[in-house]
Amino acid sequence: MERKVCIVGAGISGLLACKYALSKGYHPIVFESRSAVGGVWTQTVETTKLQTPKPLFQFSDYPWPSSLETLFPDKNQVIDYLRSYAKHFDLLKHVRFNTKVVSIKYEGPSHEEIQSWALWSGNGDPFGNMGKWTVNTQDLLNQSTQVMEVDFVILCVGRFSDLPNIPQFPSGEGPEVFQGKVMHSMDYSALDYGSARNLVGGKRVTVVGFQKSALDIAMECSIVNGVEHPCTVICRTPHWNVPDLFPWGIPITSLYLNRFSEFLLHKPGEGPLLSLLATLLSPLRWGISKFVEFDIMYRHPLKKFDMVPDHSFLQEVSSCKLSIVPEGFYDNVEKGSIILKRSPAFSFYKEGVKLDYSIKSTKPIKSDLVIFATGYKGDQKLKDIFESSEFKDYMFGSSNETLSLYRKCIHPRIPQLGVIGFSESLANLYTSEIRCRWLFELLDGKFKLPSIEEMEKDIIEWEKFMKRYSGKYYRGSCIGALHICYNDQLCIDMGLNPKRKDGFWAELFEPYGPMDYA
Ligand SMILES: Cc1cc2nc3c(=O)[nH]c(=O)nc-3n(C[C@H](O)[C@H](O)[C@H](O)COP(=O)(O)OP(=O)(O)OC[C@H]3O[C@@H](n4cnc5c(N)ncnc54)[C@H](O)[C@@H]3O)c2cc1C
Ligand SMILES: NC(=O)c1ccc[n+]([C@@H]2O[C@H](COP(=O)([O-])OP(=O)(O)OC[C@H]3O[C@@H](n4cnc5c(N)ncnc54)[C@H](OP(=O)(O)O)[C@@H]3O)[C@@H](O)[C@H]2O)c1
């Protein structure tokens, strides 16, 4: 009897899951609340481009068209590429558009019983044979609801969409006292360019945040309004946002995405030799981080504008927080069409925004429009989909910050379910693809998982090493600096040789990318 597989989301991760499901003979059903495939790429700021160079952000069996010369395709080129992938592998007929999965419920053994299991899904078989998932959906066009029983669920709901992170304020200090308009970057991104220009045109705009959305939106505002109505950016934490991916002319992938660069880091499961090597090479690790930091400071006037981060560039990479600064951003800061304000906190008053009182000589910022480019609550979105409060809690552990997934794909105590696309890397398509491949090899019975206890130990071990390099910026789900080591584990599980390069020197120094796993 064919097992029913349900995939939630038709962004990059959902499309990949669908393609790999088909390749193993399943007939998956994909629920997508939007009316098109592509997830976040269906609604972005007009000037958004890929931040990852395209060789690192491509399907291993469907490269970018050779006619596309740019290294960083724009949002329309990305969406065209994703649509053409879906068409090529005939995925669209499996997607039910405008259909939201409202909740999922595991119907089977009680939580007490699940807690007592030694093996995933009860018997180590991904399909378990002990229960099924009930998937509750809503058709967003006619509001009708439907219930479906499936054997396996893959959550590909995305981390940076749908549920915005809105800052909270004590009563009397929030947007309610402000006479202007407040919106989140998600809603700004949903506007077409003309509407966005009209919205900000001639207005005093304040943008909150100092990561990619904030930088892009501030840049757009400064282009529209010039120095006459400068755009103010409120930065809580300065970051090592890079001018490009070539510090001092060297590709950053040669510094952070080859096997040699991972020898400089301690890794989960390392033996005494690798551990000694990482310790001996730690000055080089520090030196490379400084090398990139000096490049950024040489090219961007961070000191002049009090924007030098307190943490290292290695921490930035290890927490997947790398953002490329739009071209001309600091020229506009110098000209005065963008004003940078550093403040650990802020609040609203009638005419605008007040910065933290502890900062001397700061005047309130008069504003007509405040845009929160403050990110998303991907963790909450993932939790909300479960009906069971136990599964909600399992997902994010006791600290509520870490997504406790084995191989960043499955939760040892949530049966018959995978999560793809939540844990980040510096090239998310690449990561989602190898994870889908791993998951479907598992579903296909190609390998068995260890016991729940061993998987939990492995998760803790990975968290320990990832925290070591990302420090307080640890988000619990970024394999940024240990990408190859992580891929090695998936390859070994799948019975593939993890060493994918031709020859010793290539293996050591050539950057790894999706095509190495084709
Ligand atoms: C503007 C922007 C630019 C980015 N640029 C890069 C980059 O250059 N390089 C990089 O590596 N990463 C980048 N990222 C990260 C990006 O999130 C990933 O690259 C990738 O697109 C994520 O794909 P996904 O399928 O995992 O998630 P999403 O793209 O978020 O897709 C999730 C899909 O699930 C659907 N969905 C969610 N909940 C439900 C539900 N309950 N029922 C039905 N459907 C649901 C959503 O509608 C959505 O279509 C960027 C992110 C953003 C926001
Ligand atoms: N390819 C592209 O061009 C592109 C474009 C847009 C987005 N993206 C990607 O999309 C993802 C989301 O990016 P994002 O910029 O929207 O979100 P983000 O990376 O989560 O950044 C959120 C920003 O808001 C700040 N912030 C959050 N809460 C705040 C508060 N209460 N007060 C003040 N500041 C607050 C954060 O400061 P702290 O650092 O102090 O937390 C941070 O600067 C990222 O992966 C990004 O790379 C890519």
UniProtKB/TrEMBL annotation:
Its cofactor is FAD. One of its GO terms (molecular function) is NADP binding. It holds the Pfam family FMO-like. Keywords: FAD, Flavoprotein, Monooxygenase, NADP, Oxidoreductase. Gene3D superfamilies: FAD/NAD(P)-binding domain. Signal peptide: none annotated. Its EC number is 1.-.-.-. Transmembrane segments: none annotated. It comes from the Eukaryota. InterPro entries: FAD/NAD-bd_sf (IPR036188), Flavin_mOase (IPR000960), Flavin_mOase-like (IPR020946), FMO-like (IPR050346). Belongs to the FMO family. This is Flavin-containing monooxygenase. It comes from Chenopodium quinoa (Quinoa).
